[in-house]
Design goal:
Oligomer: single chain
Structural class: alpha+beta
Number of strands: 7
Shape: globular
Number of helices: 3
Length: 134
């Protein structure tokens, strides 16, 4: 877990009771697989890691296939990276990423994306404008 992810985790749990966090492989619409993190109860087979005061849980098979896994945050969402995670920095909210040709879906949260698509650039510009008005 990076320092920015630890900071985001602390902000998330600021007004909530701290609970274990699970790294999981999820299936979305059209059968698209993506990585995510969520609070969850521990299962007997979980591999658990104590990092920055948080319990991070992951299924051993998932860790074997994609580990080691790094949790990062870009200020909007958590990002996961690891061996075989595609795109290499999967957004915790979508796991699609940006593309200069616009062929991959994007939800605009990839603040550090090296090849932002038009939709991502527009969404980030709106967020920046909204933040400036606050």
């Amino acid at each position: 877990m990076t320092s920015s992810a630890a900071k985001a985790m602390t902000e998330f749990f600021q007004n909530r009771e701290s609970s274990p966090v699970r790294i999981s492989l999820l299936t979305g619409g059209c059968g698209i697989r993506f990585f995510g993190i969520s609070t969850d109860a521990r299962k007997q087979e979980d591999q658990c890691y104590q990092i920055e005061g948080y319990t991070i849980m992951v299924d051993p098979a998932l860790m074997h296939e994609y580990g080691p896994i790094t949790i990062d945050s870009d200020g909007f969402a958590f990002r996961l990276s690891g061996s075989g995670i595609v795109p290499p920095n999967a957004c915790g909210t979508c796991a699609f990423g940006c593309s200069p040709t616009g062929k991959m879906r994007c939800n605009g949260i990839c603040k550090s994306c090296e090849t932002p698509c038009a939709k991502g650039r527009r969404m980030r510009a709106r967020r920046k404008l909204a933040a400036a008005k606050m």
